[in-house]
Amino acid sequence: MVRAASYLGSLALLASSALAKEVAVNEAVAAELYDSGLVHKAVMDRKMNFWKTARESGVFKSEQYPELNATKCVNGWAEAIVGDRHNTFRCNNVDLVHFLPHVALGSPGAEGSSSWGWTSDDDREFVAVGQYDGTAFIEIGKDGRMTYLGRLPQVTTPSEWREIRSYKHYMIIGSEAPGHGVQIFDMHKLLTVDPANPSLGCAAGDGYVHDAQCMVYHGPDKRYEGRDICYGYNEDTLTIYDVTNKANVTNIISRISYEGAAYTHQGWVLDPKNQEYLVMDDELDEVRARGPAADGFPVTYIWDIRDLEKPKQTGLYKSKTKAIDHNQYVIDGLNYQVAADVATYRILLLPPQQVVRQQRSGSW
To answer: Mind telling me which InterPro entries this protein's record contains (predicted)?
Structure first.
């Protein structure tokens, strides 16, 4: 623990850095703080205690939250139920379309984690909603209203975490609950294959992965064209995998840390059709006053991944509102990031590694 404290003190010196750049992984720090599970345990304990307090205070009693219908944002307020301050919300550039509590989605709890959408060939839109005790399925109508269709219960104990992604017309559902395994749900309900017996594989070589984006590679690094690549956000590193081989093997293309690393959280490739850059967030660099986020303003780290074996950090974007940045997703050149609000900004990357930032607006 003395060494751990020493490492933390040394890392704190990075707080004075005005700019961020890629740095080699400090293997000693990684082993002491991250590989050992020390940081992960501290984060988990804090979250579990927070949720325990909220649960005991009644915040998660789903039946207290009514269904809410379409409500316009007017002068910064969306009054979903006239005269009810508990259902009147601050807003900016976002209208409420429809709200259903978890109890209306077949779950007695009001706790959810992750969701993912799927569009059928005839343009019907569906969402798989992760819940404390299973997964609910809804359809979003042309008017934006949700219709609850049914749910897939968990097969073991409930869990605060459930992650969902789609593969073709399947929803792949995972959880950290002991013995949960992986659930595969066919959104077509067609039995042309047997998804109940998948061939399982695992790339465990870099340990804990908080979030990952996996896709078929298309980009300037022709060595990997057409291969299955995963960009992993692994507590203190950006780790890039080649997962073309689905067996229990780990093929790490590159693994790099960065100034200010505290708890690498999530990121997203700017253009899946030409994978040159990605943006990344760190959940705790503001909290722990690390690197460029030492002043408490969220930092979006920008990475040049044109060479998958040698990713480089080319710049950053600092929010103008103090908060903890969380997930972000890029759609049509705009990056939507959740922090104190939903920040929207455009990142233009021009050679040689020049970063131009435009169009930043907050919506909530």
So the answer is: Choice_anch_B
343 contacts 337 by C-beta, under 8 angstroms: yes
Do 162 and 143 form a contact (C-beta atoms < 8 A)? no
pTM of the entire structure?
A: 0.74
Supply φ then ψ for residue 128, to 5 degrees: -95, 120
Task: Tokens for 317, please give them.
Answer: 């974007």
Q: What share of the chain is helix, strand, coil (3-state, %, to 5)?
A: 15, 40, 45
The dihedral through the CA atoms of 335, 273, 228, 22 has a sign that is negative
Query: Cβ of 185: how many Cβ atoms within 10 Å?
Result: 18
Kindly give, in sequence order, each residue whose CB lies less than 8 Å from that of residue 269, ignoring residues fewer than 6 positions away. Answer: 213, 215, 231, 275, 277, 278, 305, 330
* Residues with Cβ within 8 Å of residue 103, at least 6 apart in sequence: 62, 63, 65, 110
pLDDT in tens, 137-163: 999 999 999 998 888 888 888 999 999
Q: Which helix (H) or strand (E) holds 112?
A: strand 112-119
